[in-house]
Amino acid sequence: MIKLTEKRQGVVLWILENRERQWSIHELCTKFGGLTYPSTYDFVNQLLKAGYLMKTKSRRFMLTNAHALVQQLAYTFPLRSKEKECFFAGGDMAGKMKMLKRTGLDYSATAFAAGEVIHPYVKTEKVHAYVRKGELGKWKKQLVRMGARPAFEDEANLFLLPVGEEYYFSLSRQVHGLRLAQRGLVLADLVSIGGLGEEQARMIEGAVK
Predict the structure, then answer these.
(1) What does the alpha-carbon distance between residue 88 and residue 99 come to, in Å, rounded to a whole number?
(2) Please, which residues bridge with residue 179 across strands?
(3) For 3, which DSSP code?
(4) CB distance 87 to 151 below 8 Å
(5) Of 52, 64, 88, 111, which has the highest C-beta tally within 10 A?
(6) Cα distance between residue 99 and residue 178, in whole Å
(7) Contacts from 1-6 at CB under 8 Å and sequence distance 24+?
(8) 31: how many CB neighbours lie within 10 A of its CB?
(9) What phi, psi does 14 have (nearest 5°)?
(10) Cα–Cα distance between 89 and 151 in angstroms, integer?
């Protein structure tokens, strides 16, 4: 298993985002940003040797095993181990998603909340969303103002996941007016939940093949 860091996770997510086409290391460094060519070259070649990628006739790269990369993300960065700020808010999942949007702050929803938008399957009140670590104080004030309250994790139904890397937002996408995390990250978070999470991840993967 290849060692993954937060920076390398971003590279993997960029590769998953571009799963249907060929790309070069130079393009990856240029479009993803903040990467040195030597370290990226080394990592891409590790992925190549491990069978995640293939080299094309034009000497470019292409993803060959998206499922295995998602599985490794889930194993290395399981949702349960990520830093969380926990809240309880009334209403259903859709209401909480609208609450996130009304704050006007950057977010990218993941796990079941994002899965329900991409491919409805699991009905739950729980919403997980990545937010900028530097804006966590603003989030707390906004959510309390809108009627949410801080809660212990076992009673919470709204979870903020504060992060520092830009790719959580630059690789996010808007679907039906809601901001969702990059699909590979959503899948990895669902897989790491297990049970119904894994089932929904399989359904989403099957729908995009």
Answers:
(1) 12
(2) 174
(3) -
(4) yes
(5) 111
(6) 11
(7) 1/72, 1/75, 2/46, 2/47, 2/50, 2/72, 4/72, 4/73, 4/76, 4/77, 6/165
(8) 12
(9) -65, -45
(10) 9
Tokens of 54: 């293939």
**Following DSSP, what letter does each residue of 57-115 receive, concatenated?**
TTS-EEES-HHHHHHHHHHHS-GGGS--EEEE--S-HHHHHHHHHHT-S-EEEEHHHHH
Number of CB atoms found within 10 A of residue 185's CB: 29
Of the candidates 94, 95, 48, 84, the one whose C-alpha atom is nearest the C-alpha of residue 156 is 84
- Tell me if the pTM is above 0.90: yes
Backbone angles phi, psi at 53, to 5 degrees: -125, 165
Q: Which two tokens stand for residue 81?
A: 């181990």
Q: Decide: 14 and 32 in contact? Cβ < 8 Å.
A: yes
Hey, what amino acid is at 71?
Answer: Q
